[in-house]
Design goal:
The complex is a heterodimer of chains A (210) and B (235). With 210 residues, chain A is an alpha/beta fold. Chain A contains 10 helices and 5 strands; from the N terminus they run αααααβαβαβαβαβα. Chain A folds into 2 domains: 82 residues, Methionine synthase domain (Methyltransferase, Methionine Synthase (B12-binding Domains), Chain A, domain 1, Orthogonal Bundle), CATH 1.10.1240.10; 123 residues, Rossmann fold. Chain A is elongated. The chains are: A alpha/beta (210), B alpha+beta (235).
Chain lengths: 210, 235
């Protein structure tokens, strides 16, 4: 098995030390860092994402694979251009104002990064203005909002309204998710996408960036 | 009757299988040595950080009717409206695992230890449920000892945010129960801090009073329909 396939296979098994070591070996063999990233690490993460969506593997294995991915990226990062690492697009994510639950949002961030998106994580309790300002300043493609409380869901609509008011709704797409959030609610407030879970959020982001 | 309850930390420590189930892993799946190590590490963190405490306060039917009505945001009809008037005991409750556990989860995320952070979070969620189960046992036992419930009596917890009880109901619940005394604070958006806390009402009574069909308007957007399992486990 050639080394890039080995990296992908080890990553799929969540073997972070092995991924780190193989990635270094690939660099030592003068393989281009973008190639190692694309055909080793991202290829492995793609399989992990596909298997997770197909319910063949579960969250703990995804988390270990993401950890292995990070171990490999650490080696590659000094040798990569920004567009190599985040070729899919840029997503600003956060938990909306008033809400402090961030595990779901963090998982979405892990999955998006693993799928090649640049993720700007604003954390929790994020104001509508902060979402919009960050998206504008960073040139983000998508804003991803999470809410775990019915009382905080209206903040999602405020972000969408603010984007419209500032004429950004055609350049910045929105997607939402969280336990009480539904596809119907996403349509009702005019969100462009809806993620039922972290894996689905990645699919949604891919569709939104084309 | 209102009392604070020190919950023995050992009673809230989940099993490895329970942690995996909380992370969406079906019971028949072998996750391998790496996942086992991850869960073991999370359980170790959990044992070190969890500080479980509880509080309960009994209310009568009329008092609970006012608390349940809250700000008037509930769905109507809702199951609890039918259930609590037939109860033997109605007890407000809250429990928490303490702030240090939630802080530890956040710190792990901030340090980039995502796998351990997410696993500890799932462990803590499962531990929080166990704190509730511990309170269930105390309340039911007390009710039986005092002759207000019998061997056939069962206990179920209902919480704002579920089954038609609007989340804003937390405000009236907190005003009546005072869980600030065990370190739980309510935010403006009705979120409990520390995050790994639960609150609501415990209803003691014959198993049949808890039975309802999941065809209320809000059931269509419920992802879990966990009520089915809870009702099934009563018999």
């Amino acid at each position: 098995m050639e080394i890039l396939e080995q990296i992908a296979a080890r990553l799929e098994r969540g073997e972070d030390q092995e991924v780190r070591s193989l990635t270094q070996s690939a660099m030592d063999q003068s393989l281009p860092a973008p190639k190692i990233l694309a055909e080793g690490l991202l290829a492995g993460m793609q399989v992990v994402g596909d298997r997770f969506r197909a319910h063949e593997i579960f969250l703990p294995e995804v988390l270990l694979a993401a950890r292995a991915m990070s171990a490999g990226v650490e080696i590659l990062e000094p040798h990569l251009g920004k567009t190599d690492l985040h070729s899919r697009g840029k997503v600003v994510i956060g938990t909306v104002k008033g809400d402090l639950h961030d595990i779901g949002k963090n998982l979405v961030g892990i999955m998006l990064s693993g799928a090649g998106f640049e993720v700007i994580d604003l954390g929790k309790d994020v104001s509508p203005q902060q979402f919009v300002d960050t998206a504008r300043e960073s040139g983000a493609d998508v804003i991803g909002m999470s809410a775990l409380l019915t009382t905080t869901m209206p903040a999602m609509k405020q972000v969408i309204s603010l984007l419209k008011e500032q004429g950004l709704d055609s350049s910045v797409r929105t997607m939402i998710g969280g336990a009480p959030v539904t596809g119907d609610y996403a349509r009702e407030i005019g969100a462009d996408g809806y993620g039922f879970d972290a894996a689905n959020a990645v699919e949604s982001a891919r569709e939104l960036v084309g | 009757m209102r009392k604070l309850i020190d919950i023995p930390p050992a009673t809230v420590v989940p099993t490895e299988d329970a942690v995996l189930r909380a992370m969406g892993v079906p019971g028949d799946q072998n996750q391998g040595a790496r996942v086992e190590r991850l869960v073991a590490e999370a359980l170790e963190e959990f044992r070190s950080e969890a500080r479980p405490k509880g509080i309960v306060a009994e209310v009568d039917e009329d008092e609970f009717a006012v608390i349940y009505e809250g700000a008037g945001d509930n769905d109507n009809p809702s199951p609890l409206l039918e259930i609590f008037p037939r109860a033997e005991v109605v007890m407000l409750f809250a429990a928490t695992l303490g702030a240090s556990l939630s802080d530890r989860v956040s710190a792990l995320f901030d340090d980039g230890k995502l796998a351990l952070a997410a696993t500890l979070d799932a462990t803590a969620s499962e531990g929080t449920e166990r704190a509730g189960i511990h309170l269930d046992g105390i309340v039911l036992e007390d009710a039986r000892t005092n002759g207000r419930a019998d061997a056939a009596s069962r206990i179920l917890r209902y919480s704002p945010g579920y089954c038609g009880w609007n989340l804003t109901g937390q405000r009236a619940l907190f005003a009546a129960l005072g869980p600030e005394e065990i370190g739980i604070r309510l935010t403006d958006s009705c979120l409990m801090e520390p995050l790994k806390s639960i609150s609501g009402v415990m209803v003691v009574g014959p198993a049949e009073i808890h039975e309802f069909t999941d065809d209320y308007s809000f059931c269509s957007v419920c992802r879990t329909h966990d009520c089915r399992r809870r009702i099934r486990e009563l018999t």
